[in-house]
Design goal:
Blueprint: E1 3-8, E2 15-26, E3 32-34, H1 43-48, E4 50-59, E5 64-77, E6 94-95, E7 101-102, E8 105-106
Antiparallel strand pairs: 1-2, 2-3, 2-4, 4-5, 4-6, 7-8
């Protein structure tokens, strides 16, 4: 379901790459694994279901692209059509796939409460 973006400052040329949201599942050890889209990548993914969504997002505070869990369900969802993303969590300084920069700063898409 996710997409990849490259954001470049109009004046300074500073660039970051973000992507997401990506479905994931939890394997037997509880580790996050890519689920796949539009179909599960493996039999294990299909059996375990979608546990949530993750993304690579830009943090304006640490000036890094960070891998974050955007949403995790209390119980895994059995199929992709049942999985919906609701941005209810906030991170200070982290921007959700921001479409552009103005004066070297992301212009929109910040995740807020």
């Amino acid at each position: 379901m996710g997409a990849s973006y490259r954001h470049t400052g109009d004046r300074c040329g500073y660039a970051v790459e973000t992507s997401g949201p990506w479905e994931f599942y939890r394997d037997q050890a509880g580790m996050r694994q890519p689920y796949g889209h539009p179909v599960p990548r493996s039999r294990e993914a299909k059996e375990r279901g979608i546990a949530g969504f993750s993304a690579l997002m830009y943090c304006t505070i640490c000036d890094q692209v960070v891998d974050v869990i955007v949403q995790e369900y209390p119980t895994a969802i059995g199929e992709a059509l049942g999985a919906t993303l609701q941005l209810t969590t906030s991170w200070c300084g982290v921007y959700w796939c921001c479409p552009g920069f103005q004066n070297g700063n992301p212009t929109s898409g910040s995740v807020t409460k």
